[in-house]
Amino acid sequence: MSTETAALRLTPRQVTRRRRAAAAQRTWRQFRVNRAGMFGLVLLSFFVLVAVFAPLLADADGLQVTKATGEVLEAPSAAYPLGTDDTGRSVLTLLIWGSRISLFVGLFATAISMVIGTLMGLASGFFEGWSGRILFRLTEWFLVIPFLPLAIVLASVLGRSLLNIAIVIGVTSWPGTAFLIRSQTLSIKERPYLERARVLGAGRWHQMSRHILPNVMPMVFANTTLTVAVAIIAETTLSFLGLGDPTRVSWGSMLDDAFSVGAMTTGAWWFIVPPGVCVVLVVLAFTLVGQALEEIFNPRLRGAR
Amino acid sequence: MLRVLMRMPGRPRGSRHSGHRTPTRLVAALALLAAALLVPLTVSQPASGADKKTTFTVALTSDLDSFNPFLGVEANSYEMWALMYDYLVNYSMKDMSPAPGLAESWDTSSDGKTWTFHVRDGVKWSDGQDLTAEDVAFTYNRVLTGEIEGTNWSSYLNNVSKVTAPDPQTVELTLSQPNAVLPLLPIPIVPEHVWKGVTEKDMKSFANEPKPGQPVVGSGPFRLTSGTTGGSTIEFEKNPDYWNGTPHVDQVVYRVYKSKDPAVQALIKGEVDFVEDINPLQVKALQGQKGIAAQNGISPLFEEIGFNTGAVDTKTKKPIGDGNPALRDPKFRHALGYAVDLDRIVKSAYQGAAEAGMTIVPSAYGGWHWQPTGEDKFTFDLDKAGQLLDEAGYEKGADGKRTMPDGKPIGTLRLFARSDQKPSVDTMNFFQEWLADVGIDAEVTPMDTNRLGEVILEGNYDAFQWDWFVEPDPDGILADFTCDQLGGLSDSWYCNKEYDALYKQQNGEMDHDKRVEIVKRMQQMLYEDSPYIVTAYTTTGEAVRSDRFACFQPQPDPGGVWLVQYGAHNYSALRPVDEAGDCDGVKSALKPVAASSSGGGADGGSNNAVLIVGGVTVLLLLAAGGFLALRRRATAGERE
Amino acid sequence: MTTTVVSTPTAQPLTRRPSYAKYVGAKVVGAIGSLFFVLVVNFFLFRVMPGDPARTLGRGRFKTTEQLEAFRHTYGLDQSLFQQFLTFLQNTFTGQLGISLRYRVPVSDLIRDRFWPTLLLVGTSTILAILFGVWIGVRAAWNRGGFFDKVSTGSTLTLYSMPEWWLGLLLIATLAVGVGPIPGIFPTGGLHSTDVDPGSLAGVLDTAWHLFLPVVTLTLAYLADYSLVMRSSLLDELGEDYLTTARAKGLRDLAVRRHHAVRNALLPTTTISAVNMGFVVSGAITVETVFSIPGLGLLSSEALAIPDYWVLQGTFLIASGGVIVANLLANLLYGLLDPRVRT
Q1: Which of B7, B268, B425 sits opposite A304 (nearest CB)?
Q2: ipTM of the complex in this document
Q3: Interface contact A234, partner C, CB < 8 A
């Protein structure tokens, strides 16, 4: 008897939590059925595992130019499964360790982009009048300036380190998220239950955090995975242009080296193809997962059930 | 209810109907494709040989900045001016020492304050007017009086107070003090009758570009007929009345490539005849190709590790920045010279295409270069380095790290590398290791060159890696170590009164042999004080279709580069293979190679490589499509 | 990397909608405001970059500090920042874009020379990408789950995941250099052959031949944006109620599609296309590098190394201006087509 009474007397917070847990389970179930999404997830897990276990898979010494043991641009062999680069290091080692950089920069840049973008999007969607408009203008400036030149400017101002590259990418890519969040915020803002909350005296902050944000989060999450994909390509491109961290090996910097060393002329396909393939696979993985999530959260895309 | 109805639109086999909207677009797209593919058939022309005109095409891998000799600073711009214009004094092919140019001969007064150049007769400008000493005087006076013109060239007319042309074949330079650097005069001579209309105001953006049908007026072996500043194709036609002999090709065309590998591929395919400034690995790959000659040519450039020997404020002479005090001691620096494995750097950072460095005057300038011998010469000897450090008072502490003579720890040396140059980063990484081996901590920071320049000026560094290009007269590079250049061009903050005195002396020493002695003594001084450790004399990779063109003479001879030299000698000397003969008797000139199929693909290795590359891409696409097909199949059941 | 800017309709309170004229006016004023904001921020942005142009350009050439000073004086670099800013504003409003520090010719000349190649390269690619992308998106959405949908979505996603310059390199390696029996039929770079007059018919074909690979590269890279968006917005539309009404009325399959679904689904694509047309004038730095096409993208990226302030201000102005104008036009178009957005 007392258990029943106890079960009935759940706090609102507990109710919300249970609801959220149930929703997450539902999402997972839907995701599992989505073949492309699962494929993406598996691929992603593979690369994440490679990145995490890099020290076990390949000797860190193999990254040092000063300890390079192979000949310059050796073709693949038993000793060097993917051959060597222009300073005699094993390409496979570089590839394994490079996954860390690409994933780290991609995720960190996305985190920055998401945080800024969500805040800006919420704020500019929610606040009307002058503050909203100024925020909008600022967002627009970032959108209007071509991405790559802006990234180059910021990279040269900040200096070339891993962190700075992530910051540069994050800072130049938040407008997309912001716009998405803003339009979502605008549409949610007008919904009836929010109207009711306002009538009941809910303040701005309460409205934003308790009502709008949770409803916006699923789309944000889907958008996040897509942003990671874009961030990884951005890092690769910046490294290719010579703006990456020169002390670290990333897939982009490998491609830059391969190209400037003359991969086409020297026929060193093992140097120029694998890093690109890795980039494509990782980006594809994130894109597939993101698309699957988008389909789940935006029911109209799913088609009839 | 609604859902049942909604299922109908998605009939998959409706693809038949989908044809209506698309044919127009599809046809348009196919037409575009067809046109693009047909173009090679209609437009394909052999690059040279079959035409009546012989054209020598050069692929440049870096831009040129201006056709106006008073404005441009890029190396490739100098090449353009050398084709269009002449110089009072040229450069020998052997070692870039002064050779007759427009001036057949010259003499100096005994006090060194008057230089008289005898301009040769019969030289004409391309518009028919005569070239006389007046044009020379006009050009030099513009440099002396114009702010803009002086920015580029005034250092070559150091101490010159007056330039006159007493008669059409004589130019006289009057100096306030002797200047031994003359006759290094790389200033192109421009026609007075064309340039007198260019005011100072105009000059700052005067592009000197040709107009259609109106080539730029010059006296050089070729005339600039077409090209724009910052453009990608530049065309020159030969000057049949050139005073030094008609060139053997009708046209020289430059194509600016933005990346090196495609430029090399263009050479292999036959789209260009010469490619300059390529990597050692590309040179190596090209050396195996038929019909192509490739080499790493000596060019007078050296790479160095520079130290912060004591940055000071130029006005107050008080120290600035946070350079490590150990580096202010020449003995400390000199000891480090034994901790650098030059052979390893050459092999690993430069892929073997360099010479181990010694002094700041490269070995290319044989006459000026000082060679350290025996005991004085740096070798890679970590024990000796340690020994010298001990003797200088930098002994190892209890933790194995060296300390200052007073016992305090040395700390971590900050090594800066240029982030855009991989050899620079590699060199500093090696150096860091070797420093660790002798018990000194160091960390490497790659940096943008712009920022590095600022850091050096502020004195917030311990060591950096950079390079210098050295001119035929060593005065320029020697000047960088004088006290006057602190806060200017000096990046080591080296300041030594003895050295400055020697510098002044050689600058005015008109006796050549005596001057060489002084210059060698100065090199020795720098070698001992070690504000720099010169790591390598690098080379420039280049390649040419030796089955089409021949008779390139290296400069310096032997071992030097075939193009982008001092002067335009090779442009006059080069010949199509069927006219090569014995190349005018020049033994070191590049001889023609038996013609192979012009153009043609790369060798088998490259083909395989590319086949694999293409295959991988296709596989990738198929795989992706396939996996998505799996997804479709799985979810299709839910939908329709 | 493109970002989507879609003005989505918001739920309208029951007030009078502003007229189209008022909407246009508001948008134009907004565009001018953006442009001015961009101008000012850009000026200061470049001055924050490290580097002294005089030293960068003069390394090894200028021997004395006098020469460095003279260079700075000639090109106005020794003036105070505020003074330079005033000069900049003055010049911009009179249409002068300054003189390039690197090339020492008017910036407008450089931009003019590079404009046409950029337009040809990026403009053609964008247009082709839109055309092909829309077509693929429509077909894929309409025949959802079919073979075409599977293959096209798979390949466009893969192409989307590729860095475009890597794709360009592969294309050069296979089609310009040659694979096995196929000779490399396309040139390795550049815009023209040297022995063809660019103005003649042969010259035009020659330029098209040179541009083929770079345009293919960019088109494939841009394709996925359009096809995926078109596909999803069409799928969105296919779920709308009014379509079922149309079906219920008995219209033919094809007519339904053409007149209702695709038209409406085109709206987001139109907005994105319009905005991306604006990005055309910013060039494509990486593809221009790999294929050695002298475009505006390369001009600005090379200017960043010095930094060549005036060139940067000029190219960024053109690039941002292009996007702002395109944005404006897109908004005007959208406002015309869908009155719901006229807030």
Answers
A1: B7
A2: 0.83
A3: yes
